[in-house]
């Protein structure tokens, strides 16, 4: 996403707002730029406005204000059928009265393509999703996973530059969902098509995307590649929404360049990376990933080190989750590898915990 | 304990020497299941019985009765059995000979002895009158005078009523002197018997029923088409409205159901008659001349307008219930695939509404083909339908046999059309709600 790339702004949202009822904004001031060939995921809780954004891009909803461009051209007044955007719907929306082959042939037919060319493309698209033998079936005769593949093939068969997917895997079971995630990713890479993908499943977003836009309350909370999102959340919402997260609340005592010290409600002082604090005296949320906390040996050498009590042990096979009381917080989670040390742990036992400054991020108070 | 049970059961199975499955109590599984299900079957039966009885008494039985009436023909057989016996060898050309008249006299005399309510000459006169007008008065006048007749009876009968000298009457007596007849159907098809007993078409000016059937069919098709043209957009609009507004619109559609027939009809008369609201409005606006007021009621137009109005809900309801279940994402998907809104509608949306169109169409068509009251009130002469003719025969001409024949033909016609529909489209694709 460097400014030098010419395909940087293949799709852009420029100060886009959307209201359905004229009273509340469902999408508030959306600015987003998607590069050509990028796999961009909109991630966020239900009701955060993801689908609305996708529908505005597809042309089924109009932006209340602001501008959306595609390939450099504003598309606010282009009707959906002229946008040439492929779309995979959550319920697949395969036409029930047509066979699989006719479904795939439909976008080619309405473009006036000849019969032999159509057949060829349909076959290629079906082969791509490994459904080559299903052209004569009706959608109702297919399983959920198969329908999903057909919907994908139909959205791609007319070779659009941009494909939108709205929670396409939401209705599938876990195993199938994971397999489809890799397949979609693979297809994206081999075709080089731009994908805007909507999901509320963070694992899905992290697995598949080049960039993830985390939505909440009609705003993008953070836009970043998956690793950055996980390692360096910009605010408390993103930290809590992506992955597991320990939060400690307190007031900023002092700021020292890129670090700050925060006095927690029980009086302990924690040193943390200054990410999203305005100044001293304000409330802040400290975010700390469970796997970055050291328990027992070596904890005392860390810049932040506290005495903690084990409240609960949850055995998870490869690791053990330990719920502890740290600095007055009863919900503090630490992950311990399943080795001799971990197994010896007992409820009620006291042990030191510690972590480094850069693993503990001081964020906004929310 | 469990061990002991198992051994006991094993023992029982071994001693009976069969592989039959038994329950823990040793009862054969099949019998146990039957017993368990008997109650449920009885229950189900008890729930259906009232409806079954109701349908039998008010539907199946009267229809069977009607079909029977359309062929029943015992009036003449009951009244003059001896005469019919004598007529058996008659060639049907010249007037029958004296023996026949003597037999007729004997039959009439015997009938006179019977108690008044059992006398059979009255029904015979009515029956003959269907075939030949004045036959009824011939029979009744002669029956009254017959006790004074002396041989030769031929002259006496012809003196009493000249019709007895007409071979036509005797041909009818001979032809209809059988317990079953096809003559009502012959008449219902605008045919009649000629002198040689062959079935031929009636005179041009006396043919009514075939063209009336044709008109009924045509009106039904037009009305079905009109309800479709009006109902489809309404149903579509309702299906995309939020539930609250859709219900409001639904009430407007259902309003004809809730208004009394007379109110509705009066409303149409007020609107459509020559001095009515529409005509007056058009004249006032100068669109038509005062002399050329449109006639929109007491003719076919009146029937079409009023029946379309009344039957609209039968089209809208099935359409609406089908359209409600079509998710908007189909249209969106079609558009995202590059189809213009019209193509998306034609290729994707419309085909999915076909079950509703089929159901609504069959419903409206079948109801309108047998519709009676509206054409009677606003149809005038040209807007009459076959049911009005049936009603006329039941209420005025009292020719129930002919009415029954027309009704049976209507019923068979509807069943045949339904069968055809089923062959072409499949009844299981109907969606009524
Ligand atoms: N067609 C609509 N009319 C009115 N409100 C809507 C409509 N679609 C969505 N909304 C509202 O907009 C908000 C965002 O919805 P949506 O974009 O579907 O969120 P998401 O896809 O992130 O779950 C929700 O509060 C929802 O109730
Ligand atoms: Mg959504």
From TrEMBL, chain A:
The EC number(s) given in the record are 7.6.2.11
Where are the membrane-spanning stretches?
none
According to the UniProt entry, its GO molecular function terms are: ABC-type polyamine transporter activity; ATP binding; ATP hydrolysis activity
Catalysed reactions, semicolon-separated: ATP + H2O + polyamine-[polyamine-binding protein]Side 1 = ADP + phosphate + polyamineSide 2 + [polyamine-binding protein]Side 1
Family annotation (Pfam families): ABC_tran (PF00005), TOBE_2 (PF08402)
- Annotated ranges, domain ABC transporter: 11-242
The cross-references to SMART domains, in alphabetical order and at most eight, read: AAA (SM00382)
Matches recorded under Gene3D superfamilies: 2.40.50.100, P-loop containing nucleotide triphosphate hydrolases
> Can you quote a single GO CC term?
ATP-binding cassette (ABC) transporter complex
User: Any idea which UniProt keywords this protein has?
Assistant: ATP-binding, Cell membrane, Membrane, Nucleotide-binding, Translocase, Transport
PANTHER family, sorted: SPERMIDINE/PUTRESCINE IMPORT ATP-BINDING PROTEIN POTA (PTHR42781), SPERMIDINE_PUTRESCINE IMPORT ATP-BINDING PROTEIN POTA (PTHR42781:SF6)
Protein family = Belongs to the ABC transporter superfamily. Spermidine/putrescine importer (TC 3.A.1.11.1) family.
Kindly state the subunit structure of this protein.
The complex is composed of two ATP-binding proteins (PotA), two transmembrane proteins (PotB and PotC) and a solute-binding protein (PotD).
Question: In UniProt terms, what function does this protein have?
Answer: Part of the ABC transporter complex PotABCD involved in spermidine/putrescine import. Responsible for energy coupling to the transport system.
- What NCBIfam families does this protein map onto? potA (TIGR01187)
Name of this chain's protein: Spermidine/putrescine import ATP-binding protein PotA
- Species of provenance: Rhabdonatronobacter sediminivivens
Q: Which gene encodes it?
A: potA
Automatic annotation (TrEMBL), chain B:
Gene Ontology CC entries for this record: plasma membrane
Query: Could you list the residue ranges that cross the membrane?
Result: 42-64, 217-238, 245-263, 300-321, 357-378, 398-421
Which InterPro entries does this one have?
MetI-like (IPR000515), MetI-like_sf (IPR035906)
Location(s), subcellular: Cell membrane
Residue limits of the ABC transmembrane type-1 domain? Answer: 213-421
Where is this chain primarily localised? membrane
One BP annotation, GO = transmembrane transport
Membrane topology of this protein: Multi-pass membrane protein
Keyword set for this entry?
Cell membrane, Membrane, Transmembrane, Transmembrane helix, Transport
Q: Does the keyword 4Fe-4S apply?
A: no
Query: What family is this?
Result: Belongs to the binding-protein-dependent transport system permease family. CysTW subfamily.
Name of the protein this chain belongs to: ABC transporter permease
This chain's source organism reads Rhabdonatronobacter sediminivivens
């Amino acid at each position: 996403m460097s400014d030098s790339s010419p395909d940087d702004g293949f799709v852009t949202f420029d100060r886009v707002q959307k209201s359905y009822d004229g009273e509340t904004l469902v999408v508030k001031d959306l600015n987003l730029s998607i590069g050509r060939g990028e796999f961009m995921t909109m991630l966020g809780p239900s009701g955060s406005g993801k689908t609305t954004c996708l529908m505005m891009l597809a042309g089924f909803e109009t932006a209340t204000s602001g501008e959306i461009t595609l390939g450099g051209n504003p598309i606010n007044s282009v009707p959906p059928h002229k946008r040439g955007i492929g779309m995979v719907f959550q319920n697949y929306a395969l036409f029930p009265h047509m066979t699989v082959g006719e479904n795939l042939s439909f976008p080619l037919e309405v473009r006036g393509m000849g019969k032999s060319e159509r057949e060829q493309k349909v076959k290629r698209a079906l082969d791509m999703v490994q459904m080559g033998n299903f052209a004569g079936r009706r959608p109702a005769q297919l399983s959920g996973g198969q329908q999903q593949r057909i919907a994908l093939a139909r959205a791609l068969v007319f070779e659009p530059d941009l494909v939108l997917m709205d929670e396409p895997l939401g209705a599938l079971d876990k195993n199938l969902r994971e397999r489809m995630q890799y397949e979609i990713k693979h297809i994206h890479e081999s075709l080089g098509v731009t994908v805007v993908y909507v999901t509320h499943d963070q694992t899905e977003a992290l697995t598949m995307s080049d960039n993830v836009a985390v939505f909440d309350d009609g705003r993008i909370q953070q836009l970043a590649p998956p690793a950055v999102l996980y390692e360096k959340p910009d605010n408390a919402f993103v930290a809590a929404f992506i992955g597991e997260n320990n939060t400690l609340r307190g007031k900023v005592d002092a700021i020292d360049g890129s670090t700050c010290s925060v006095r927690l409600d029980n009086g302990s002082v924690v040193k943390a990376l200054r990410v999203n604090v305005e100044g001293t005296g304000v409330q802040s949320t400290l975010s700390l990933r469970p796997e970055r906390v050291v328990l027992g040996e070596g904890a005392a050498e860390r810049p932040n080190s506290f005495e903690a009590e084990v409240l609960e042990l949850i055995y998870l096979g490869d690791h053990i989750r330990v719920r502890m009381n740290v600095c007055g917080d009863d919900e503090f989670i630490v992950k311990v590898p399943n080795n001799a040390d971990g197994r010896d742990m007992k409820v009620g036992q006291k042990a030191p915990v510690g972590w480094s400054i850069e693993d503990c991020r001081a964020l906004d108070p929310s | 304990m469990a061990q002991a049970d198992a051994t006991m059961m094993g023992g029982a199975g071994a001693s009976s020497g069969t592989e039959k499955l038994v329950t823990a109590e040793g009862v054969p599984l099949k019998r146990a299941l039957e017993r368990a299900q008997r109650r449920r079957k009885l229950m189900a039966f008890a729930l259906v019985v009232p409806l079954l009885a109701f349908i039998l008494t008010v539907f199946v039985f009267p229809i069977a009765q009607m079909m029977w009436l359309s062929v029943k023909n015992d009036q003449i057989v009951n009244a003059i059995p001896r005469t019919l016996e004598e007529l058996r060898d008659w060639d049907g050309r010249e007037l029958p000979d004296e023996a026949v008249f003597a037999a007729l006299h004997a039959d009439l005399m015997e009938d006179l002895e019977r108690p008044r309510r059992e006398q059979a000459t009255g029904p015979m006169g009515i029956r003959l009158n269907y075939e030949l007008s004045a036959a009824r008065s011939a029979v009744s006048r002669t029956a009254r005078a017959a006790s004074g007749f002396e041989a030769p009876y031929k002259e006496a009968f012809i003196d009493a009523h000249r019709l007895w000298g007409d071979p036509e009457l005797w041909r009818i007596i001979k032809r209809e002197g059988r317990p079953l007849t096809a003559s009502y159907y012959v008449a219902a098809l605008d045919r009649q018997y000629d002198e040689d007993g062959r079935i031929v078409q009636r005179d041009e000016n006396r043919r009514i029923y075939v063209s009336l059937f044709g008109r009924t069919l045509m009106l039904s098709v037009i009305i079905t088409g009109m309800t479709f043209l009006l109902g489809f957009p309404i149903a579509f609009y309702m299906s995309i409205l939020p539930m609250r507004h859709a219900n409001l619109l639904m009430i407007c559609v259902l309003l004809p159901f809730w208004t009394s027939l007379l109110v509705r009809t009066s409303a149409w008369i007020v609107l459509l008659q020559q001095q009515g609201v529409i005509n007056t409005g058009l004249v006032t606006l100068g669109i038509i001349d005062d002399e050329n007021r449109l006639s929109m009621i007491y003719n076919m137009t009146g029937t079409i307008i009023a029946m379309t109005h009344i039957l609209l809900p039968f089209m809208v309801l099935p359409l609406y219930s089908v359209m409600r279940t079509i998710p908007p994402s189909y249209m969106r998907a079609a558009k995202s695939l590059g189809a213009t809104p019209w193509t998306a509608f034609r290729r994707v949306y419309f085909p999915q509404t076909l079950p509703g169109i089929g159901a609504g169409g069959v419903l409206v068509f079948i109801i309108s083909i047998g519709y009676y009251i509206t054409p009677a009130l606003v149809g005038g002469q040209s807007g009459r339908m076959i049911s009005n003719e049936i009603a006329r025969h039941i209420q005025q001409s009292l020719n129930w046999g002919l009415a029954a024949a027309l009704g049976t033909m209507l019923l068979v016609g509807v069943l045949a059309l339904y069968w055809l529909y089923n062959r072409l489209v499949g009844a299981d694709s109907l969606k009524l709600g």
